[in-house]
């Protein structure tokens, strides 16, 4: 078995419903694996490259036989999205934490409530409400 | 008897509804007696579910084939341990089992918090019991485990042979414990949001529960991998099947949560993010259950299509809507009380660790659902299989491995150049030397694996250095001998050193995964008795075929003599079984495991007439280190889960502050 035979087998999904690749499927009496392996061998014997063989299979059995999405058109989204999301999230982290880093308005003991009659009144009112 | 089970489930549903109503009303009206009655109702739910489960288990053990479930998932010849395991082997039973675990955990939580967390508890009850209502409603109205057959069957259809395996007995319960365990931190998170008590009490209270859930998710995933390795017989342990992904995603989110809560405890930051993570973890456990049962994505080990999908989607929608609304309302209270000083800090490292964990979870999620998206958008079915997940997740995983080395030793707040030099010079040297040495030995061809080994050396060096320096410091300070100093060091800060031990386990698993993925050797050969095949230094001689037969299963065993360097080292028996009831053949792998590699033999096919036998042989390097890594993770978790005095004081102090605020409550 040549290296590229294995390589192609690992890029195609077995059609017996196992969800494994042609290479990995070992379902007993699997109706799909053997014929597909022979077909791959035939195709490779014609001197085709891996992409050519894969596109032959996609044409014959439909795109779902490919074990991974193609890297063209709509399928490109499948490949780009994870990295795009991680990248954008990284940017978001940096931006957000930059924002936190801006000095927050200082509150606390340095501005006692007594200084501000309005605040004092509100605090008293709220405390009364709390007790009631 | 069966009627008792069905009745118990119906009563449990009623009691759970009461528990929710009483908990909310009690909290609103500040009536402790009403809250107490909701707690009692939650205990009752648990008791009733225990009764229902016992009834189903009894029906299974007594082979009561008038019950649809018993007839569908067991048989009279099925060995007893698997009859018991059939409790979670089918759709209805597994939902009941799930409910059993959930309500039992609810009981434990209520017992633990009898006199604590008075403000939070009613809403914890509400959340847990709402989840219980969902599962109970499924078992009562949609997939009733106590459904009778119109005519009792004479014999059962048997449990799927693939599930008749030791690992399958412990893998699902473990995974379920992990899944269900995630609802406890989630329930406390929800309660914290509702009550606005967003300090770290909910986090400290649930730390052990989170670890508990994480622990069982970890074990569940590893046991699943082990099962696949041993039973499916394709030479691997992980195929990125939707069901595997369903178990992997909550683990990732839970891991992220475990780490980021530390930032909240230490620096009062990331409150919002922690809420998001606990929500995400819980949602992913429900999503995982949905994936395995809905038939939306095809998978080998999912349950058959069942029409449960819409219910799960509905429940998920409610959970997400309620939590997002609460998060939005509580936004002001979730503000960080501190700021990040520098990205070269523990906080920064943890943020990126979180980013990577959630990133991998997202990539896995995305790959899992992309076929559905593609079909909806383009109307074309496509497959997203192992090549996709390996390509996308490997770089993210390696970055994560790097962060495992950086995160625990980098300084809080801001790292100085001196701190970085002190902590990372030796590890970086160790990593680089490992990489160079491996390249030198001619292990070229798989750069990812070499990067992985180098990073592993880097991480292990940081950890060893931590242990070494800590021990030295104690020796100097306390005058203790090295061994004593080491034990005391770990004992004084179990969380930290337990964490390091877990990291060692993770690194070992990384090494095992990288080695077995990159350097696997395999050979398939059709042989006649007497033939020998050479695979990676082993000479495998086919001696002949043996047969065995019992009422449950018939089997054929190929006798393979294994020699190395001209010396016979083992005789192995890869086997093919035929399960009579299900009329299904299965493969039993023969394995010879050493520290270095597994020799893994599969009997492919056998033709009686010609005497030709097809043998598949795999040599999987370092696989055992994945399982050893798992055991180390278990040890590390045990170390870190044991409470230290300091930690209990911290929780008591945090609780005291809470309870003071509650004085109004209990007048």
Question: Would you kindly provide a written description of the structure presented here, covering whatever features stand out?
Answer:
The complex is a heterodimer of chains A (132) and B (667). Chain A has 132 residues and is mostly helical. Chain A has 5 helices and no strands. The model of chain A has no long low-confidence stretch (mean pLDDT 79). Chain B is of the alpha+beta class and 667 residues long. Chain B has 4 domains: 1-160, no CATH class; 165-306 and 341-384, no CATH class; 395-519 and 628-636, no CATH class; 521-621. Chain B is built from 20 helices and 10 strands. In chain B, helix 8 (183-195) runs antiparallel to helix 9. Classes of the chains: A mainly alpha (132), B alpha+beta (667). At the A-B interface, helix 4 of A face helix 13, helix 14, strand 7 and strand 9 of B.
Give a summary of the structure in a few sentences.
With 132 residues, chain A is an all-alpha fold. Chain A has five helices and no strands. Helix content of chain A is 57%, strand content 0%.
Core attributes:
heterodimer, A: 132 residues, mainly alpha, 2 domains, elongated, B: 667 residues, alpha+beta, 4 domains, 6-stranded antiparallel β-sheet, 4-stranded antiparallel β-sheet, 20 helices, 10 strands, 64% helix, disordered C terminus
Would you tell me the overall average pLDDT of chain A?
79
Major sheet summary line of chain B: 6 strands, antiparallel
What is the distance, rounded to the nearest whole angstrom, between the alpha carbons of the first and last residues of chain A? 86 Å
* Helix content class of chain A: 55-70%
The overall pLDDT of chain B, averaged over residues, is 89
Oligomer: heterodimer
* Secondary-structure-derived class of chain B: alpha+beta
